[in-house]
């Protein structure tokens, strides 16, 4: 038996003001993005903003549906829009924030496994890691570099070796 340990790392900032200007501004864009959240069922509004290498900003927000599984998270709305419209302009950073009247949010809301798997695909496609900024109003900001610091056991096909 061999025991393995995997370390992941992220930075925590106390306030948006401590961030570099571009990241600070991207967080404000994520707050703008959540205004278009369609979340009448969960009442949990999520906004995502992508900064592309060209400086262009892409917005995403969670879009729910009365048929629950038909809805989609803010992160995937933004990432799929990027893939469909700007695939040659690499994603440099993604900021994600959330608001709800139902709960107190004191820590950043992290992405679901499906969004992380999609994020992994985007990093692979563009061959560049993406800086992730997670925050809620009045809480700390978590800055995470690259998918390996969020989903170390992500599915990737290089692990699949043909049996023949
Ligand atoms: Zn998700």
From TrEMBL:
Stored InterPro entries: CMP_dCMP_dom, Cyd/dCyd_deaminase_Zn-bd, Cyt/Deoxycyt_deaminase, Cytidine_deaminase-like
Classification via Pfam families: dCMP_cyt_deam_2 (PF08211)
EC number: 3.5.4.5
Enzyme class: hydrolase
Residue stretches making up the CMP/dCMP-type deaminase domain: 21-164
GO molecular function: cytidine deaminase activity; zinc ion binding
Similarity section: Belongs to the cytidine and deoxycytidylate deaminase family.
Protein name: Cytidine deaminase
Annotated organism of origin: Mucilaginibacter lappiensis
């Amino acid at each position: 038996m061999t025991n393995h340990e995997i370390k992941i790392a992220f930075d925590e900032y106390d306030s948006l003001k401590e961030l570099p200007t571009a990241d600070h501004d991207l967080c404000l864009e994520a707050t703008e993005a959540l205004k278009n959240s369609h979340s009448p069922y969960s009442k949990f509004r999520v906004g995502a903003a992508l900064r592309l290498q060209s400086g262009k900003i892409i917005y995403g927000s969670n879009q729910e549906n009365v048929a629950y599984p038909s809805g989609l998270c803010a992160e995937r709305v933004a990432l799929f829009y990027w893939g469909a419209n700007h695939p040659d302009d690499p994603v440099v950073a993604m900021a994600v924030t959330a608001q709800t009247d139902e709960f107190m949010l004191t820590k950043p809301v992290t992405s679901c496994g499906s969004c992380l798997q999609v994020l992994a695909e985007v990093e692979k496609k563009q061959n560049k890691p993406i800086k992730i900024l997670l925050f809620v109003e009045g809480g700390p900001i978590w800055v995470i570099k690259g998918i390996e610091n969020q989903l170390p056991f992500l599915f990737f096909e290089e692990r699949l070796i043909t049996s023949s």
